[in-house]
Write a structure and sequence with these properties.
Length: 270
């Protein structure tokens, strides 16, 4: 099975795109909704939570896990690949979302100035500036942390008028850093769920691309190039959903964001 992990609901955007492009595979999704948001935690806590989630997905049969979460990818991916997999699951793989996203942003920018909206942990990790400038050292990356967005999305308050004000404030702060930004990265998978609101306040000259589409395309390409992995993945179009939370609200939000009625099974990671 192909596993997808997120701190909550945001990773569903990537899962949905992956299913659209590759419907035959079996998929398992785990949202750590009981402990979201990750973005305001320290790297050690994010690593601990993420590795617990990945271990659970492996134990459920996932051969490859996608960290469908920028925060986990930014803070925990390298340590998971270098320590956790080697020590516990040397036959499995974990991939993140940062490098494919950085590559796409580099391709898109003409002004060589990119803006990033992300969680505090992702911003403080400096992973986006690092990955972007590894590809093109002339590009400037301007970051803006948006700590209020994930809690509002997880609370399902997408119609609350205060959300527009908060988004506008974050965007104003970002564009105050530079008026030359021509490409905006929604560097948190949750933000795709409110991209229609974000786009209302982004200047017309700025491109906003869909991270979920980009990551799913690159995953498809990766699986084509790595037959030794794709051949191990089951292709019986099974869909399994797990969450660390089972409140009525979570069931409702999984349905809303996945687009179909699903009943996530409650799991404990601790
Ligand atoms: N979806 C996660 C991301 O892409 C949200 C992080 C959080 O829980 O704060 O960063």
């Amino acid at each position: 099975m192909l596993g997808f992990f997120d701190s909550g609901l945001g990773g569903l955007t990537i899962l949905k795109e992956a299913i659209r492009l590759m419907p035959d595979y079996s998929y398992i999704y785990l949202g750590d909704n009981a402990r979201t948001p990750y973005g305001s935690h320290s790297p050690d806590v994010i690593y601990k939570f993420t590795s617990q989630g990945v271990a659970r997905l492996f134990d459920e049969g996932a051969k490859l896990v996608i960290l469908a979460c920028n925060t986990s990818s930014a803070v925990a991916l390298r340590r998971i690949q270098q320590e956790f997999l080697l020590g516990h699951y040397s036959d499995r793989k974990v991939l993140g979302v940062i490098i494919p996203t950085a590559e796409e942003a580099v391709k898109m920018t003409k002004s060589k100035e990119i803006g990033i909206l992300a969680t505090e942990a992702t911003v403080h990790s400096f992973v986006y500036p690092r990955e972007v400038t590894k590809i093109d050292s002339e590009i400037k990356v301007h970051q803006q942390a948006c700590p209020l967005l994930v809690p509002i999305i997880e609370a399902g308050e997408l119609e609350w008028e205060g959300l527009d004000l908060i988004i506008k404030k974050y965007l104003d702060q970002l564009f105050e850093k530079s008026g030359r930004i021509d490409t905006l990265v929604l560097g948190c998978t949750h933000y795709e769920l409110i991209s229609n609101i974000i786009k209302k306040y982004v200047p017309d000259s700025v491109k906003v691309f869909n991270q979920a589409e980009v990551v799913a395309e690159k995953l498809k390409d990766y699986l084509k190039r790595h037959r030794e992995i794709s051949e191990q993945l089951r292709k019986d179009d099974k869909r399994i959903f797990l969450s660390t939370e089972d409140s009525w609200r979570i069931k409702d939000l999984f349905k809303k964001f996945y687009g179909k009625k699903i009943n996530p099974k409650k799991v404990s990671l601790y």
